[in-house]
Specification:
Elements: H1 2-22, H2 29-49, H3 55-78, H4 84-103
Helix pairs in contact: 1-2, 1-3, 3-4
């Protein structure tokens, strides 16, 4: 269960990153509200998962999901550039996440 909650925390990080962009510097009300709610829920889920998972593993997975997720959302919804170097960077992040999961005792 801690792993599922950690993945939810990571996905919520993607949500708040995307809605923060949509809030245009917190100048738009509803995207700002969604950003703040998603931030709080993301950190709460991260904290709950850390009750069972090692700090380094949980935090790395959380930020990795957020980074790769934001990268994908940026390309898919915001028209950001997709090139070989950026894809390689995302693959390396995912590889690190897999290794972190495999090395975790929990």
């Amino acid at each position: 269960m801690p792993w599922i909650v950690l993945v939810v925390a990571g996905l919520l990080e993607v949500v708040w990153a995307f809605t923060m962009k949509q809030s245009e510097g917190f100048s738009r009300f509803w995207p700002s509200v969604v950003t703040l709610i998603a931030m709080v829920l993301s950190v709460v889920c991260l904290a709950w998962s850390m009750r069972s998972l090692p700090l380094g593993t949980a935090y790395t997975i959380w930020t990795g999901i957020g980074a790769v997720g934001a990268f994908i959302v940026g390309i898919a919804f915001l028209g950001e550039a997709m090139n070989a170097t950026r894809i390689l960077a995302a693959v390396l992040i995912v590889s690190g996440l897999v290794l972190m999961k495999l090395s975790s005792p929990a």
